[in-house]
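PROTOCOL LOG
Step 1. Enter all chains and additional molecules of the complex.
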Amino acid sequence: MGNPEMADLSIYLFWTGLTTAIIAVVLYIAYAASASISLRRYAAQTSAGTVTMVSGSGQPNAPLGRLATTTTGVVVLALGAAVATRWVAVGHAPISNLYEFTVAFAFGMAAAYLGFETYSGMRRLGLVGLPIVLAMLLVATRFPTDIVPLIPALQNGPLLTIHVSVMMISYAILTVAFCGAVIYLAQGGEQGQRFSWLPSGEAAGDLSHQAIKLGFPLLGLGIALGAWWANAAWGRYWGWDPKETSALVTWLSIAAYFHARSGSGSVASAPGIRKVVPTRIRRGWRPDPMWWVVVMFGLVMFTYFGVNLWISGLHSYAGV
Amino acid sequence: MTARATAADGARPASPGSSPFKTLWDLLTNVKFALLLVGTALVASMLGVVIPQMPAPMRANPAARDAWLELQRSDFGALTTPMYRTGLFDVFHSPWFSGLWVVIIVAVTVCTVSRLRPTIRSVQRPPLRVPDRYFETAHYRASANVSLPPVAVANRLRAKHYRVLETHSEDGATYLFADRFPWTSYGTFLSHLALLMLLVGGLMTVFVGFDRTLALAETTSGAPVFDTPGPGQIFVKMIDAVRGVDDNGNVVDFRSHLEVTRGGKTITCTATVNDPCSAFGYRLHQAAFFDDVARLRIEGPGGQLLYDDILDFDGETAVVPSFRVTDSAGAVLFDEDLPQMGLDAGSSPGRDDDLALAQLAIASRAGDGAVASFVVSWRQVAGQYVVAIAGPGLDPTRIDPGGSVESSGLRITLDHLASIPARQVSDLPGAPDGVAIFQMPSGADGVPYLYVTGIDSVGAVLEPGQEFVNTGNFSYFFGGRVEAAGINIRRDPGDTFIWLAVGMAMVGLGITFYVPRRRLWAKVTPNRVLFAGIAERTTRFDRELRKMSDELEASSPVPVPSASPPE
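Step 2. Run joint prediction.
Step 3. Record the structure below.
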């Protein structure tokens, strides 16, 4: 079954993407490190003569950054081509098993990252983003690459393509949101700047929020499309299947993020609750709403790997 | 009114605002409480994902439920019973989970209702004036040191799609109010309303919709859909249930060709897994496929028809050995499943020492009528099947799957253990003891046949189309294996609401996120313009205001030195 030549070509492109991703990770690390080791020479005329001082400039090496971005572009191209050739090889959107979906997910992540890097100019975000892409590709190497026919439940070409693609794109964009959240939290929040070689907390948080604003409706749309498909295939929109429940929980975590942002203070200070929650707890526990983005990413990974690999359900065909 | 405010009021009489209803209303409209609810729903749903959930068919069957719980005991030990009692093995149908969603729905309803009037007021009658100190304290603010007439500032704002009103003039300053996309305030309202619409759709699906699954076999007459007969009754007949298999044995298709009849009208349609068929306002989904169904006809001694219907094995199976026998030349003499032909009940009253028995008879290829007969027995020991064989020149020998023995020039290999449809039928017409056991193994050619014990002194073999007459003159006719499918028949008046809700949620979120409202107050003095505004935190409104100030300063013919004293 399938087109073996194209399948082989897809595998070669996948490995090209993986190798390039390793190089990109190294380049992003070098780019971020260059900010802390680049030096600026100062000269001052004093009574004792001209004094020359050297200090860190805080500016990363721009050519190195451009090279890292270009390498990421190559990763995107290689993985995009791997997905396209796999599509030709299997005769349908290559998102019907964990190998195919993981490669497509890594492609989506890399492309989403590159898009947001271009949009924000925040190149050092790659320090978090590219290692995640690389990790996904390494995980993909553990899954079988065999081409098997689509089982009857998946034989809905348009919905397979649209539903799974929308879920994948939303997860990829939410991964970028997670990258921004990690830097935001590492910097100490909105006003924080603990590490001069990283983007500011404000900029990272802003980018994370922009990504969530895009990923949240897409995830909702993906879940709705899944419900549509479930209604056609199984005769019901919702059945609390582990995969659909887990996707809903991910969506709820983002809803929690928005609610946490829009309300100041802790949950424990809500009317009624503040009567029963001790003041010490009420005042002590006020996590930054951005922690919800970290929770969200954990749920994305759980929905993706945990549910497919360890929990059986109606989506178990998406396993290995 | 909050609890703190009430306490501070001291001796004042309780106002209507301090009633329990008001407290509850405040709680339900509080965004922090909403966060708590969302977080609780998140944790509760995750419990249902990570903890094994009892399959639906077992919930209503006490014996199956107990058996399933026993299986869980190996993982959860002493916690199994408390977890079962608290609904952790059936989270999504537990009262506390339903209660949580009821609270969420009530909270969303209250939020939606409570924000409607303020939202309308905010759009139609926004506050046009702000105190002067707001221009110095607002989160989003900017100023331009320019000398521009108010109309020029207003025109600049209108060019940026603001609706501008000159509110008043005071102490030589003119005050403007500008509003952009005020209608987008309805976005959040719309997305919350969508959740309620989803609820309405769901309730209609549950309480007004129709949902029934019928098991329909080929060769049977149409099955009624409704319990109550009447002119609106619908009959569904299975014409052909198909399981498509490719050359490599992969299942690639399930489909059912159906005939749906109501009154005198018949609709023929095909349902596949992804494409249900529609008839008379109902949708017929392909829900399952069965191939363990036999067509059986039984006639009494006088030829009277006693039974002519399907025999559904209903998923019941028996494990039997599958042998491959070759002669000394390597020719294959037997290669198929061996059904159970008898039972040695053992000495104990229980079934632990029961032994399944069968006879493996191999005819010689020479055509001389010689038959080598072997006795095969098997039983389950500690979860493993143990198979033994004995025959001419062969002492009882244990044989494992893949293993072989040789006897009388034959090589007998236990190829594998097969699971075949098998079912005990009580009150079978013509069976001396009323009980018969039906097995449906496949022959060497892959065609299923029936092996029936209990209808005569010997086991009866019925090939498709073949009849067996027992000593009581009852005849049993096997019409062959038939295929069947589970057809789910549904009518869902809630789906319109559900898709409407999805559309509303998408539009609401899109408006909220991408067309955010901006409200701006401007104070225009002879040498300075001050802006203060309100917008969603990530709109980058501060940058927009800074840019606008820069543009004003650039366009001003006489920039005023920035050292001028503040207003």
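Step 4. Note key features.
The CA atoms of residues 87 and 94 of chain B lie 5 Å apart.
Residues 1-16, 562-567 of chain B have pLDDT under 50 and may be disordered.
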